[in-house]
Specification:
- The protein is α/β, with parallel strands linked by helices.
- The chain has a domain of 64 residues.
- It is elongated, with a radius of gyration of 21 Å.
- Bound molecules: magnesium ion.
- The site of magnesium ion has 7 residues, from loops.
Amino acid sequence: MEAEASDTMKLAVVDIDDTLLMGGRLSRLFWHFSLTFQRMGRRLQKVNGRLLDQLPEYDTVVILSGRDKHEIQFTQSQLRKAGIRFDKLICCPRKDLINKWKMSVVDSLDKENRIVWIDDIFEENLLKGALLQLHPNVTTIPPTRTALVKNGRSSELEWL
Ligand SMILES: [Mg+2]
């Protein structure tokens, strides 16, 4: 009997943003404000003159930042305005990193029981290749949602 019960046991792994909690127009407005405020803060930053003077000693300057890769254009222009010469700017693919981290967490779970992983990331085709490596007991599904809150793109709230 016990074995039978455990055969039917399922574990749900559920995402929050755009899955359990949906962002409406107002939430995106606040998201927009937070990005605007972040940029306003960054515009107040001052260049480190001593480091700037040292950079010409190097043949190649690669700037590696934890800023999100969606901020690359803003960052490029901020650096150029500050007179910083660089060869390459690399920002952080945060969303990819978070998705990979989620996969490693699900991968580390005990898979004797079936796992259903519900996340809006499964609405994106990009992940399909990577997901083939998941355990056969792991089923991935996008959230079901009401038509009212369905919007074409991610609120992006969770990864900044
Ligand atoms: Mg999400």
